[in-house]
């Protein structure tokens, strides 16, 4: 997909990867950007920095009615949605002991919000015979987020759902990509490090933390090539292959890393 003259919606747009996508899409010549997030003030600031093509809206992506209205309002204003970026995500830093409320929130933000977006945006895309869904899923969805069970489980589900969409709708003109970065310098990582979360410490120890702008650059390249799996950290592909070929060895290596960090 070429972003020139396209209408795009980005959720989780108040900062991090979402705001970087907005800036990059504007630089590519997008016609209109609708930036959605719970944090209306921060999203408004992003929209103002991007310019007049950007519009900020307050949306709770875990509320299907709000997602449906986001899509309907965008279609009324601009006539269509060419690209919907389901980018909102949350981490917990918890294991099996994480409270049910944390599991539920992870499920609703990391998975159900993608389902709600697809339900709302697919009818018009299918009617036109074209459209694009970009789901931010994380490398945790193809590997594992050590130290965060809810994040690992829900990001695997997000990748699985994105793949299902790609298989089901590609022949009807709707393309799907799963954006799966590993470590990214975002508030989510900073908050995890401040809280001492093991997963955040593993990411920091890897020495491969990208900026949100670097992730946005990778997203643009992946969209241009219409690749399903967009890996801003190319080493993730090698990790995934190693994990598939030798799961016991892969797990042993991660356990060793965890022991070192805990020591």
TrEMBL record:
Source domain of life: Bacteria
Pfam family, one: adh_short
SMART domains per UniProt: PKS_KR
Family matches, as InterPro entries: KR_dom, NAD(P)-bd_dom_sf, Sc_DH/Rdtase_CS, SDR_fam
One MF annotation (Gene Ontology) recorded for this entry: oxidoreductase activity
Keywords associated with the record: Oxidoreductase
Family as reported in the entry's similarity comment: Belongs to the short-chain dehydrogenases/reductases (SDR) family.
Official protein name in the record: NADP-dependent 3-hydroxy acid dehydrogenase YdfG
Organism (species): Micromonospora palomenae
